[in-house]
Each structure stands twice: as C-alpha cells, then as structure tokens.
Write a structure and sequence with these properties.
By secondary structure, the protein is an alpha/beta fold. It has a single domain, classed as Nucleoside Triphosphate Pyrophosphohydrolase, CATH 3.90.79.10. Helix content is 29%, strand content 34%. The strands form 4 sheets. The chain has a 4-stranded mixed sheet, sandwiched between helices. A two-stranded antiparallel sheet has the order 1-2. The longest helix is centred in the C-terminal third of the chain and has 37 residues. The relative contact order is 0.20.
Amino acid sequence: MHPQVVAASGRSFACFPVSVLAFVVDTRDRCLLLRRPGQPGWEVFADPLQEGESVQEAVVRGLREKAGPELQAVYLGVLDTFTLAFDAQLPPAVNVCCLMRYLGGRIDLKADLLEAEARWWDLTELDQIDLATPRGRWDLLSKAGDMSRYLRDARQAEESYRQDKEEWEQEDEWK
C-alpha cells in the first residue's frame, strides 16, 4: 500500500514523489546526457519537483543547478510521464519527461557532479548508449529527437508561409 493523504472532504489521494527529467536536444539532433563516476550508464538530467513549483520551473531550475547558469535552454513541453520504483523502501516516483531546446552557453557541472562527464549524443547512436536514467527507455530519447525536429520544422514552415503570404499580398496590391 502506498502512502495516502486525506483531504478535508474525506477524499483520499495517493502520495508519490515527482521527478522532472530534462531531455535537452540541440539543433544538430543531439541529446545532452550525464555519466556519474562509479555509476553505470548515461542519464538525462533529473531533479525532484519542489513544493510550489510548476513542472517547467522545476526542470529549468534543476538543469541550471546541475549544468550551470550559463547553459541556456528553453522548455518546449512534456514528452511523457511514467512511474518508476527507485527501490523497495520508497513508493514509485512519477517521472515527468520534459523536452528542452539547447540555445547555447557553457556546460559547467556543479558541486556533486564535478567528477561527472556530460556529453552530447547523436540520436542516431541510440544503440550505443547504456541508458541508466530513465533505465532502458531509448524510446524517450527517440521521441525527444522526433518532437524536437517536428517543432523546428513546424516553426520553419510557419515562417516560410508568412513570407509567402506577404509576397502574395504585395502581388495583389500591384494588380
């Protein structure tokens, strides 16, 4: 049985810890992953959701705390959610996977990550990545790449349409 809280109305709610996972993708369709010393595999940047934070606030804060304030990334939205039992002593955690677009800036791993390694992985190399967090969820890396490309292409198509529309309107004025 998972921990529960009861509202004043008597309604019960399950209590689950919540983590946000940052899938940071750049314009070259690479995903930023982290490897901690003494830990197997690569992981996305993850942090717990703190009281009063939105998912967007939490993922931006967590990324800046771990990768440094110079790293610039914009939140694009939620990719997926899933639950995961971290260990037998804790209730399953709700993991909210967020897509982030890397805009630039230096990656400066902080305090507890000084010995860690951060690396950009080309999303065509998925079969070479020993993914520790989220364990075995290569589909999420693939989804991050697909969504990133879709949003980039949609933005370019919208801009192209705007330019074409302006040209059409100018041609109509000349007639």
